[in-house]
Amino acid sequence: QLQLVESGGGLVQSGESLRLSCVASGFTLDYPDIGWFRQAPGKEREGVSCISRGGGFRKYADSVKDRFTVFRDNAKNTVYLQMNILKPEDTGVYYCTVGACSGWPRQDLFGSWGQGTQVMISS
What does the alpha-carbon distance between residue 26 and residue 22 come to, in Å, rounded to a whole number? Predict the structure, then answer.
């Protein structure tokens, strides 16, 4: 069964860093593009980043560009989201999902959503 599991969230202060992990089971992660999305309390889910199969093509939301970095280790079946200089507006539940970066951030082009990992940034 195809499944993605996110981890690495937590409560940190503004300006600090977190690294989220997305581990795949039931399939090899080196096959698909992987997208990261987040949902803040009371807001719609939005795209954060996307990384292509080989890792050479990456996209970022304007709000996280120059602060977040997405990368992958296909040997470990894991995609990471390194988040630096975190801000209170980065608070939310972060999800990784399988899809096509060519269509990101359209959420209807992504599937196999994980349960998400909670990120909370205090000011």
Answer: 13
Residue 60: CA atoms inside 13 Å, Cβ hemisphere, count? 13
Q: Which two tokens stand for residue 5?
A: 């599991």
Q: Position 103: which residue type?
A: G
Distance between CA 34 and CA 101 in Å, rounded? 7
Burial of 62 (0-12, 13-18, 19+ CB in 10 A): exposed
Nearest Cα to Cα of residue 68 among 47, 45, 40, 39: 47
Strands 10-13, 117-122: pairing is parallel
Could you read off the pLDDT of 75-120 as tens digits, one per residue?
888 999 999 999 999 999 999 999 999 999 999 999 888 899 999 9
Strand order in the sheet with 10-13: 10-13, 117-122, 92-99, 33-39, 46-51, 58-60
Distance between CA atoms of 88 and 121, rounded to whole angstroms? Answer: 5
3-state secondary structure of 81: strand
